[in-house]
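pasting Polysaccharide biosynthesis tyrosine autokinase for the record, 304 residues
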Amino acid sequence: MYKNTHPNAPMTEQPSMIGREAVMPEQAENSLGDILRRTKGLTAEQVKDALDYQNLNGVRFGEAVVALGLATSQDIVWALAQQFHYPYTPTSEGELHAELVVANTPFSEQVESFRELRTQMLSGPMGHGDDRKALSIVSSDVGDGKSFVAANLAVAFSQLPGRTLLVDADLRNPRLHEIFGVDVSSGLSGILSGRAAANVIKPVKHLPNLYMLPAGVMPPNPAELLHRAAFSLLIKELLGKFDYLLVDTPAASLGPDARMIAAHCGACLLVGRSGRTRVDNMQQFVKQLKKSTVRVGGVLMNDH
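structre below
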């Protein structure tokens, strides 16, 4: 799928709220059986039956519980996630948008690609310490799946220690508020025009350590707003308050916005769609980005 901690930010430890009971850090050290007893109401006798089945058949405890009809496979995955402090929301609960595959299916091959991409970005373009950069997610054409990548990569970052902020700087056709279910009546456009309400940065429900700054009301002059010094100052301020900062952008074909945003962020990931994105368009866009000294972290050919 993929080709080619900031010391001053707040670090908070909090329970993982994922549509069931909160599992505190000390509880997560318990055994799988203990977690299932609390969440599925298993009796001591049922746990003993599962242990006997495990020993008799040489299987894992979770497999024994499923074989005896005491829990489902998804229950086991959820319990394992709690045991290892891993944010996870089962798709069947319908709490998160289906496009958030990193949250809904965290153990799939597709999600492993996002983890690998996260590692590549941290070890390369995003830098470390005083050289930290915000990561802009850019594409040359509309429909490349850029917002899908930005949303899932942000979820992947939020699963690391620290706080992650996702900014929707697509002031032409924003989508992230729909994916995360966040109110878009106030946001980035309000900040840049000097009309921002308080608390425009919102925590994302069910995803601890992930925050979002939505695009806000679509303005008639997006390029002019993003060109203002206020945007550059905002990026610097947010880098001081969050451990990881990702910024979604409009397609380059719609205007100069993406190039300006990438220049302010300092680093970017270029997204294309397999079988659709024109290679010459991407190459031309990369040349433009490099002229503005943006660190191009790589090219991801998305097939979503």
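Residues 101-302 form a domain with the Rossmann fold fold (CATH 3.40.50.300).
The chain has a mean pLDDT of 84.
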